[in-house]
Specification:
This protein is an all-alpha fold. The chain is elongated.
């Protein structure tokens, strides 16, 4: 089902961009700051961009170009290709999303583990309160708060741009904060459910060390259900950087997308939406397979 789903995403993406009431040819001329826009100039630009063809012919041409890595040219700068613009901004976004994912894994697993082990203790109560608060906070507000507290007041970290590892800390933590809260709650609840299972009772009866039961049995079985969720957080982290990148002036895909929206650079917006859709489908498929491989109970045998 992944292949027809990818075609459906591409068609919806192309259709919605073409439903925008503005004429892309006229927008391209305005972006290029042509002083006088005439009907002849618009017709010439439509022919140059292939907009004078029927809708489905344009879709097929665009789709075949995408399959070959050709996503068109930028309206803002016709000398640059959309693929070149995406590749120029992609490393910064991957760096930010990758660092955020590491922070999510490093913090959520041990905190969720200790919340389950010390259920209703002071540590569990504090973490549950923090999870409740941080889940409700929008990322742009968290970013501005961290900038004011750690950047402006304390002067510990830079508040915008990139270049050093210090520039990465605030935006990466801002992106990952809501996911940390989600996975703390998910891991804690899964572990508490697994602690009620019979295999935990049998392990206690056999006299296995409590730490071994928690780590090798309860935590391991609890993580099976988190694999797909964590895998799906990777494309969510990449797409979720769009706001944070603009707050921290991080030169990634999010900043490129927002500038393209303001400039009405339709090919870049179209490619960005298509890229995010493809990432969601591909990662969902990969981690469904990994979950089936790691958990024998999900395998279907003839």
């Amino acid at each position: 089902m992944a292949i027809p789903l990818l075609f459906a995403i591409s068609f919806i993406c192309f259709m919605f961009i073409n439903l925008i009431p503005s004429n892309p040819a006229e927008v391209a001329l305005r972006v290029q700051q042509m002083p006088i826009i005439t009907e002849e100039a618009i017709a010439k630009m439509e022919e140059l961009l292939g907009l004078n063809k029927p809708f489905f012919a344009r879709y097929v041409d665009w789709l075949m170009g995408c399959l070959h890595g050709d996503f068109g040219i930028s309206y803002v700068n016709p000398a640059r290709t959309v693929a070149g613009e995406i590749l120029r901004s992609l490393p910064a976004t991957l760096q930010l999303a990758g660092t955020s994912f590491v922070i999510v894994i490093v913090l959520s697993i041990p905190i969720g583990f200790f919340c389950a082990v010390y259920k209703d203790g002071w540590f569990d109560r504090i973490m549950r309160g923090a999870v409740f608060v941080t889940t409700a906070m929008p990322s742009y507000w968290v970013g501005l708060l961290l900038m004011w507290l750690l950047g402006v007041k304390a002067g510990l970290l830079p508040t915008n741009g990139n270049g050093t590892w210090k520039h990465l800390i605030l935006p990466a933590f801002t992106v990952g904060l809501s996911y940390i809260s989600t996975y703390i709650r998910l891991i804690r609840n899964n572990m508490l459910e697994n602690m009620k299972q019979d295999y935990v009772l049998y392990a206690n009866v056999r006299g296995l060390p409590q730490k071994s039961i928690w780590l090798k049995h309860v935590l391991k079985n609890s993580m099976h259900t988190c694999i797909v969720a964590m895998g799906m957080s990777i494309p969510q982290l990449i797409s979720g950087t769009i706001v944070v990148e603009n707050v921290f002036s991080w030169p990634g895909l999010g900043t490129l997308c927002i500038s393209s929206i303001f400039n009405r650079d339709y090919p870049v917006i179209q490619t960005y939406v298509l890229l995010i859709g493809v990432l969601f489908v591909v990662f969902n498929l990969l981690f469904d397979i990994l979950q089936t491989v790691s958990d024998p109970r999900l395998r279907k045998e003839d």
